[in-house]
Amino acid sequence: MSKYIAAIDQGTTSTRCILFDHKGNIVATSQKEHEQIYPRPGWVEHDPEEIRENTLEVIAVARIKVSAAVSDIAAIGITNQRETTVVWNKKTGKPYYNAIVWQDTRTEDDVTALEKNGSPDQFREITGLPVATYFSGLKLKWLLENVKGLREDAEKGEALFGTIDTFLIWHLTGGPNGGIHVTDVTNASRTQLMNLRTLQWEEQMLDRFGIPAAILPSIRSSSEIYGHMQSEVLPGVPIAGNLGDQHAALVGQVCFQPGMAKNTYGTGCFLVMNTGNELKLSKNGLITTIAYQFGNQPVHYALEGSIAIGGALVQWLRDNLGLIKESKDIEELAGTVNDNGGAYFVPAFSGLYAPYWRSDARGIIAGLTRYVNKGHIARAVLEATAYQTLDVVRAMEQDAQLPLTNLRVDGGMVANKLLMQFQADMLDVQVIAPKVTETTALGAAYAAGLAVGFWDSTESLVANWEAGATYDADMDNATRVKLYKGWKKAVSKSFDWV
To answer: Residue 308 in contact with residue 352, Cβ under 8 Å?
Structure first.
């Protein structure tokens, strides 16, 4: 009997392969970073070929670490940075252009033009999404209009589009020699091209963005066998799970009941609440999206608040200002002071996402006096993530008509105890980190494992979940209100810069 499920976690900065056992515990992991390419201000790209090669390498290394035979691996699940967009040739497998990353803002002019001809919410009823540079549809539109020969190949059926999951599955299942061109409902829901109710590509959106249907993958559930590995690293193993990274984290945190929510603190931050089989359109600046769909079961919907800059702000403090040597050093530096000294950092480097959706906003530091030192700046950097999360939670509670009773958290920043305590203080609810914090990869593993019978039900997944660190609110309400008022004022100052 197979011992493990392999999860490929293809993120914004790196690719990992993690092997999980029946208890959902990590038995081996391998990770490799890829280059971040910045051709112009606001443009962010990745080399898809580098990501593909790194994926094969990390799978091989993870296997070697536990001397796993091919027969030891029951299935592979994939989770990915979601809106990142790539187009490649069907015959050669070669990309036409670098992958355009979710953070990229080159489609600002398209957003402005669409907003002039209608409201920012003109596509919400169909797609659940506002008009924004964030989603894949406008990135694909840009590629079709700016890459020589691409539109002609697309209309002939020789060019293929996908988010990174689609690109990897196609290559891993044979590439030019019969590769499977698929995505799942969660990734499709982030393109602004899928109808949330029919779970199919929406002709009206394709016409509006000028996208030929022939370039699109088929949409499948998040948990089924799409095809089998054709690579020598795991030949014949089924690829059976596929979820966008934040949906995968929701599954990894076993948030299967309506009202359950998780927040992932990574490069950006993503708060997702399961709303069950009911589609709820937001009135408060949130995204309506697909939570997951397991095989032939009914789809589960979710509300999501996306924060563009979370851990990326800590990296900025490290790389651009040199205030810290390593990202983890920020906690010690922030701990040298008792509060933010009146300083607030609004990290609107590429506009503000939920619940504001202001592409005209830019980053600011507000409230500076001679008293403020680098410790206060470090603290303001951490607090920015907690304030942005609070903004999203308040909007989510109004949309879902459900109060948040606790928040399950994961991602790299969860190791920062100062941030987690401040988050609990500002939310005034308990913050809980799971024992296994790699919930994104775990969610992909769970989806794949359910498809091949490695796990028999979601109940067995719930039984695997264990709490790790917990943080209880320990702040008086007057302080909480005062701090949040300062944050809201700082946010208002970031508007109308562009």
So the answer is: yes
Q: Which two tokens stand for residue 425?
A: 């203080």
H helix count then E strand count, the chain:
16, 23
Q: What is the pLDDT of residues 108-157, one digit of tens each?
A: 999 999 988 888 889 999 999 989 898 999 999 999 999 999 999 999 99
Write the DSSP assignment of 398-410 as a string of letters: HHHT----EEEEE
CA dist., res. 347 & res. 330, Å (int): 16
pLDDT band at 321 (very low <50, low <70, confident <90, very high): very high
CA 127 to chain centre: 17
User: Partners of 227 in the beta sheet?
Assistant: 239
Q: Dig out the tokens for 127 from the structure.
A: 């797609």
Closest CA to 251 of 196, 288, 294: 294
**Strand intervals (E) in 293-425:** 300-307, 344-346, 364-366, 406-410
**In 3-state terms, what secondary structure has residue 391?**
helix
Longest dimension (CA), the chain: 66
Dist CA 127 CA 392 (whole Å): 20
CA atoms within 13 A on the CB side of 274: 24
Those residues whose C-beta lies under 8 Å from the C-beta of residue 204, and which sit 6 or more positions away, are 126
Least Cα distance to 104 among 242, 268, 290, 264 occurs for: 268
